From TrEMBL, chains A, B:
Purpose: Catalyzes the NADPH-dependent reduction of ketopantoate into pantoic acid.
Pathway involvement of the protein, from the record: Cofactor biosynthesis; (R)-pantothenate biosynthesis; (R)-pantoate from 3-methyl-2-oxobutanoate: step 2/2
Keyword Zinc: no
EC number: 1.1.1.169
GO cellular component: cytoplasm
Protein name: 2-dehydropantoate 2-reductase
Source organism phylogeny: Bacteria, Bacillati, Bacillota, Bacilli, Bacillales
Gene3D superfamilies hit by this protein: N-(1-d-carboxylethyl)-l-norvaline Dehydrogenase, domain 2 (1.10.1040.10), NAD(P)-binding Rossmann-like Domain (3.40.50.720)
Keywords: NADP, Oxidoreductase, Pantothenate biosynthesis
The protein's enzyme class: oxidoreductase
Organism superkingdom: Bacteria
Length: 310, 310
């Protein structure tokens, strides 16, 4: 299979290497010059904490790839998805399938502007990875992936199951989901309940969840998420998710959520528009209000501007 | 007149000194040992930027004062009002008038638990002052004061006007207000629109108001304030206040609001429960929701706990 990884940061590298190792013809696509140069020079350095190895995979800037692919996995930041899809148009042929496992909600709105709905496959993953520097991917432990066809149909379901098989052959623990929308919203809701707040409060999850405000804030954020999620075809239960979030936060301990890393630690744009911002925006479609998610989104954007993020 | 200043920090010192200079028998009351000791030893050091002088005024811990006063000005932090009033009960006789010029709303709820409504006088002041250290008050420039009787009545109005006269004799630019509730809410609304947000974003007013989020956030906060304010007898216009706040913030420039000073700079409890928190609380009395003010209050309390403020 000809597979492109559109956005070859941490998680893109992990999927790219595993699909490459399984015998697929993998092309990495990225925009970070130092990252690209080091991979071209030495191969991608893959580090699992115990051993390191260099993996030779072709890597290109988006504009350099002209060959039509069978599969494209998008692993950009959410904010970079639109531009990436526009940049790699030559890669996307009539039969090219796009697989989107990005965190958050609303990516389908971007994808369907450019790609036939039949070729869109949405999913969610619990795999993690990090970059230790340009050209240097770090990952270990396991995870899982759920995937489903975006459009209901026998052909599309069959194709989704073929993608599931391909990922399983590569050692990526993947299942076909009969309701991936619920899985996506559930994960987004968990992230939406904690990430932005920790970024605003400059706290880790443990610090925040030790305050007596964590429960009422979480409850209200989740309530607003669940209303929109269920209108969008997910099936979420407010009480169950609130309990899950509050319990999870106790276990995660001293972890700083990714939005804290982006905003506070690295002064980068956050993905808030695909979490709390998406809920605020989508609520309006149903003539609902989502004031908690709206204010959280506004405060994050204000902070981005105050910090002059890039 | 026998006048007690209950809470002799920056602004209490300013009022105390001016009333003392005008010939009143002023007693300062405070709880800060270093402050009290230095005033007892040297007098209160009064500094207007051009000259310094020591003013000898008696100063006591709350429990030390037994004499009934004619007037008590409360100049505590809002959170300290309840305890102060309880501590100075011996000072408050049948005819003792209490004058409350504190920022924010809801102080009357505390006062009326302990003091006859006829003896409560509410007001608002634009005077400012600061403490350069214990025993060292700094103030210059001018300001103004508005005062009104809490209970409608000829006798009460007459007494309010006598207090106005007393303050004017002391050089404090004071007028009798026919709608002090509007003035109090107006000031609280201005503070509520900006203070807590700047504390949360760790920004000054200029930085915050330069973001494109300041207007929509301000509009929503003010909208919720105005609904409650008008139910409580004030007469505020939403558009006019929003314009005022946004305009004021442009002029104030690089000022860090007091809540930023308390929370971020000094890790002290904030007065949020007498600003945004009061609106969230009072909205419920009218079966209204004030989600922006509610979330802001929750975030400030979470941050207080994370910073382990005192």
């Amino acid at each position: 299979m000809k597979v492109a990884i559109a956005g070859s940061g941490a998680l893109g590298s992990r999927f790219g290497v595993m699909l490459h190792d399984a015998g697929n013809e993998v092309t990495l696509i990225d925009k970070w010059p130092e990252h690209i140069e080091l991979i071209r020079k030495n191969g991608l350095l893959v580090d699992n904490g115990e051993e390191k190895r260099y993996v030779n995979i072709p890597v290109f800037y988006p504009s350099e790839v002209k060959e039509t692919m069978d599969l494209v996995f998008v692993f950009t930041k959410s904010m970079g998805l639109q531009e990436m899809i526009e940049d790699i148009k030559p890669v996307i042929g009539e039969h090219t399938k796009i697989i989107c496992l990005l965190n958050g909600v609303g990516h389908e709105t971007i994808l369907q502007e450019h790609i036939s709905l039949h070729n869109i496959f949405m999913g969610v993953t619990l795999y993690t990875a990090s970059l230790k520097g340009p050209g240097h991917a770090y990952f270990n432990g396991t995870g899982k992936v759920e995937i489903q066809n975006f459009v209901v149909g026998e052909k599309e379901e069959l194709e989704a199951k073929q993608i599931v098989e391909l990922l399983n052959e590569a050692g990526l623990n993947t299942s076909y989901s009969t309701n991936v929308t619920t899985s996506i919203w559930r994960k987004a809701c968990t992230n939406g309940a904690m990430n932005a707040i920790c970024a605003l409060l400059d706290s880790n999850l443990h610090q925040y969840c030790s305050t007596d405000q964590a429960e009422p804030i979480t409850r209200q954020i989740v309530k607003e998420f669940v209303i929109v999620a269920n209108k969008k075809g997910a099936s979420l239960n407010e009480e169950e998710i609130v309990d899950y979030v509050l319990q999870a936060s106790k276990n995660i301990g001293s972890h700083y959520p990714s939005m804290h890393q982006d905003l506070v630690q690295n002064h980068r744009y956050t993905e808030v528009d695909f979490l709390n911002g998406a809920v605020a925006r989508m609520s309006k479609e149903f003539e609902h209000e989502a004031p908690y998610n709206e204010l959280i989104t506004q405060l994050i954007h204000a902070k981005e501007q105050i910090l002059e993020v890039k």
